[in-house]
Design goal:
Blueprint: H1 2-15, H2 21-94, H3 102-115, E1 119-125, E2 129-130, E3 134-146, H4 147-158, E4 164-171, E5 175-176, E6 182-195
Antiparallel strand pairs: 1-3, 2-3, 3-6, 4-6, 5-6
Helix pairs in contact: 3-4
Length: 207
């Protein structure tokens, strides 16, 4: 081995400018380091970047798998919540009559008033007002009767299975009847609601 190294040193001295010992050591170090650096920049560094990229992809997939597992775990809870909302929606919809039930509802409200001792001077359904998933069905009323009868009628209306609201009630001055009762004339609006299951059209839809 020593003989081989001696030959290499002799070769350097013969083929190249004779160098001092320290420069020979420096040249030897360069000859050793250069291949290592070449390997690093040409092979190791690109592979290292590729590995980092694959690790990032792996971490992303792991997170997606964890998210899917969490969603799967929560699925029964979400389905139960959806079913609860659906049940509540159907229960609320029962309180909103369909189109064919509106005439009967209006007849029932009129009968309630008469049974309470009221006289209906007028009972006039108005045009429907469209809302999101339901329509308002207003009815203008003008009634006359004892004060307690008007209160009883409004109380019974509030207890109907269907939703009915009373708005814009105004009453005149009470007048004493021949029987000695104080009679009040009142007018206002009863509003019931018809379920349509149709959203309001968007402004663009009207064009």
């Amino acid at each position: 081995m020593k003989k081989s190294n001696s030959k290499f040193a002799t070769f350097l001295e013969q083929k190249y400018i004779p160098l001092e010992k320290k420069y020979k050591m420096l040249l030897g170090a360069v000859l050793i380091i250069a291949p290592i650096a070449l390997f690093y920049f040409l092979f190791f560094q690109p592979k290292s970047e590729e590995i980092k990229g694959l690790e990032g992809t792996r971490d992303k997939l792991v997170k997606e798998i964890q998210d899917l597992r969490e969603k799967k775990r929560r699925l029964p809870i979400l389905l139960a919540q959806v079913q609860k909302v659906q049940d509540e929606f159907e229960e609320a919809a029962k309180m909103l009559p369909k189109t064919k039930e509106i005439p009967k509802l209006l007849t029932d409200m009129s009968a309630l008033g008469r049974n309470a001792g009221l006289d209906f001077v007028s009972f006039t359904p108005k045009g429907e007002v469209q809302r999101d998933f339901y329509n308002e069905v207003p009815v203008a009323i003008s009634i006359k009767g004892p004060y307690h009868s008007i209160g009883g009628f409004l109380d019974q209306v509030s207890k109907l299975d269907r939703i009915v609201s009373v708005t814009n009630i105004s009453a005149g001055s009470p007048k004493k009847s021949d029987l000695g009762e104080w009679i009040i004339s009142a007018s206002g609006q009863l509003v019931t609601y018809r379920f349509t299951n149709q959203p309001l059209p968007k402004p663009d839809d009207k064009k």
